[in-house]
Structures are given as C-alpha cells and as structure tokens.
C-alpha cells in the first residue's frame, strides 16, 4: 500500500462524503445536507489529504490564518486504513503548513479524546459552543 499525501489538492464533495461514510466521522456530520458538506470543502483554506491511487483515504480539513490559529475541523481516515499512521501524518503535514506561532485547535470525538493527548495536544476546558438556532444573549 502506497499512500500519497497532498496539500490543497482538489477534493470533490462526493469524495469527501464517501470518506465520511467510510469513517466514524460521518456519524457526527450533517450527512443529509449536501449543500453544507459542499460548503465545508469549498470554504476550507487548508486541506491535507491522503490517497490510495484515486481513492481518498484520509483528510485533515482546516480553517486557518496560518499565523495564530488553525481550527482542524475534520480529521478522518477510512476505516480500512486506520491505525496505519495516516491520521498522525495528516496532522504533521497540516502543522508544517503553519507559521511557527500558530496553534492547532480541534474538538475531539468522544472516542478519540485520549488519542490527541498521546500526540502532544493539551486539553483545554475553556472551549464554548454556540449551537445553531441559539441567539447570543438569550
């Protein structure tokens, strides 16, 4: 198995959806809303992807200013390719695209909460979420 890693290589919505469906990340994404999924890919400004030939097998999808903060929105690896180092390599390549003072920020899936600590991430209890439909101040 030869996996090729690419930075900002075009990823179609169908490829992204297929990867989400073949990983556990699809359980926590709006799979019924194609327009949302298309927008997620189109409006990311840093995408590191892993390919087995023409098959997208991993993605690290981020929104960043490249200098201070990088929000790693999605880290997904196809179930058949997990535990082979692809996720770690996607994160290292993401980090390599960022300036020396840029922090990587992410929200871990419940099953992955211990994974990130082993890689060197620090747990932060100060994260807050404003869910859709909630108006600030109410």
From TrEMBL:
Q: What positions does the domain N-acetyltransferase occupy?
A: 3-137
Gene3D superfamilies annotated for this entry? Answer: 3.40.630.30
Source taxon at top rank: Bacteria
What start and end residues bound the annotated signal peptide? none
* InterPro entries noted in UniProt: Acetyltransferase_Butenolide, Acyl_CoA_acyltransferase, GNAT_dom
Which parts pass through the membrane? Answer: none
Q: Which GO terms describe its molecular function?
A: acyltransferase activity, transferring groups other than amino-acyl groups
Which keywords does this Swiss-Prot/TrEMBL entry list?
Transferase
The protein's name is GNAT family N-acetyltransferase
């Amino acid at each position: 198995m030869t996996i090729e890693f690419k930075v900002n290589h075009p990823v179609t919505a169908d490829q992204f959806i297929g990867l989400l469906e073949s990983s556990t990340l699809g359980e926590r994404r709006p799979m019924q809303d194609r327009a949302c999924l298309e927008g997620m890919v189109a409006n990311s400004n840093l995408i590191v992807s892993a390919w087995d030939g023409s098959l997208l097998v991993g993605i690290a999808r981020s929104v960043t200013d490249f200098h201070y903060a990088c929000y790693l929105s999605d880290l997904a690896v196809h179930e058949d390719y997990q535990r082979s180092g692809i996720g770690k390599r996607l994160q290292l390549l993401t980090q390599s695209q960022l300036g020396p003072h840029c922090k990587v920020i992410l929200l871990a899936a419940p099953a992955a909460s211990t994974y990130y600590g082993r890689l060197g991430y620090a747990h932060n209890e100060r994260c807050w979420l404003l869910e859709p439909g909630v108006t600030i101040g109410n």
